[in-house]
């Protein structure tokens, strides 16, 4: 192994974005200064398969020397030190909303609480005055408008949207009550990387005419005994992509659409946070027949 390297003591690789990133040994392998926020020279060196780290959170000075004097140091900043231990980079998320964005808020709050290893870097909406867009602005999340409409020149075209999301280095797209069909340009640009949540047990009660309260009304009218949310990958059509996760909610004898909607929404919030967590921890795998599964965090041999 080459001992003379740009990063003394680290073994870098070239990632798809042409950036070099280091991986560090466990915390017990470091000399530390009197300040716990400074990691000094490593006692041991390791070389593993690396995952890229966000350069904006990592300051690395390149002339490290472990001699008589203290070396210059790597300064970890919130979140990225965990990246170094797990080898999993924090994921950049884009969320699409058309309404109040309660699922968007639930995911964002879980990110702030540290349970989701990701960051919402941009919100996309077709309704700039909706509750989800207002919440994004209040929390410093950029808002962009899509699709392009004659009456609003600020809205992006499909190709412009793809270009913009790439500038934000978006890894995954989460649809959370977005009522427009996702363009084929975006589906092709982000294969197996766009998720949607639907308030019924797909493939039942899905499709273009099924959204919002219409779904719950149809479920009750059908006499179905169970309903619940579905999270699925997005393809070029409404609600036809591969199903990733579901939760079951009973339909009660005298349910109204609003009562059923409230119970389903509660499960939506729980399920989307669980799926977003697994997504950012790289625990979603694809079976040979094209079915996506979620690997259990505690027992990697179990899937759901």
TrEMBL record:
Top enzyme class: transferase
Catalytic activity: N(1)-(5-phospho-beta-D-ribosyl)glycinamide + (6R)-10-formyltetrahydrofolate = N(2)-formyl-N(1)-(5-phospho-beta-D-ribosyl)glycinamide + (6S)-5,6,7,8-tetrahydrofolate + H(+)
Short name of one Pfam family: Formyl_trans_N
UniProt keywords, alphabetically: Chloroplast, Plastid, Purine biosynthesis, Transferase, Transit peptide
Chief location category: plastid
GO cellular component: chloroplast
Pathway terms, separated by semicolons: Purine metabolism; IMP biosynthesis via de novo pathway; N(2)-formyl-N(1)-(5-phospho-D-ribosyl)glycinamide from N(1)-(5-phospho-D-ribosyl)glycinamide (10-formyl THF route): step 1/1
Family annotation (PROSITE patterns): GART (PS00373)
EC number in record: 2.1.2.2
Domain Formyl transferase N-terminal: 91-275
Gene Ontology molecular functions: phosphoribosylglycinamide formyltransferase activity
Cross-referenced NCBIfam families: PurN
Descriptive protein name: Phosphoribosylglycinamide formyltransferase, chloroplastic
């Amino acid at each position: 192994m080459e001992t003379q390297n740009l990063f003394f003591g680290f073994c870098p690789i070239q990632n798809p974005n042409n950036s070099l990133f280091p991986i560090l040994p466990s915390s017990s392998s470091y000399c530390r200064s009197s300040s716990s926020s400074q990691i000094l020279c490593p006692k041991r060196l390791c070389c593993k398969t690396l995952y890229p780290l966000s350069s904006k959170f990592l300051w690395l000075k390149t002339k490290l020397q472990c001699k008589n004097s203290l070396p210059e140091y790597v300064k970890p900043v919130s979140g990225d030190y965990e990246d170094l231990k797990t080898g999993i980079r924090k994921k950049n998320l884009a969320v699409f909303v058309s309404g109040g964005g309660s699922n968007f808020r639930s995911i964002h709050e879980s990110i702030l609480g540290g349970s989701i290893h990701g960051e919402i870097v941009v919100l996309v909406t077709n309704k700039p005055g909706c509750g989800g867009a207002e919440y994004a602005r209040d929390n410093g999340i950029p808002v962009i408008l899509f699709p392009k409409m004659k009456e609003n020149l600020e809205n992006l075209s499909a190709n412009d949207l793809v270009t913009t999301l790439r500038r934000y280095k978006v890894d995954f797209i989460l649809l959370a009550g977005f009522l427009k069909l996702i363009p084929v340009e975006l589906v092709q640009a982000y294969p197996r990387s766009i998720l949607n949540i639907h308030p019924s047990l797909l493939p039942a009660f899905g499709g273009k005419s099924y959204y919002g309260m219409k779904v719950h009304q149809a479920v009750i009218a059908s006499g179905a005994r169970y309903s619940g949310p579905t999270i699925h990958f997005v393809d070029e059509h409404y609600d036809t992509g591969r199903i990733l996760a579901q939760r079951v909610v009973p339909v009660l004898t005298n349910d109204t659409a609003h009562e059923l909607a409230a119970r389903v929404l509660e499960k939506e919030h729980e399920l989307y946070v669980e799926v977003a967590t697994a997504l950012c921890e790289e625990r979603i795998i694809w079976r040979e027949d094209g079915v996506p599964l979620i690997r259990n965090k505690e027992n990697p041999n179990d899937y759901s």
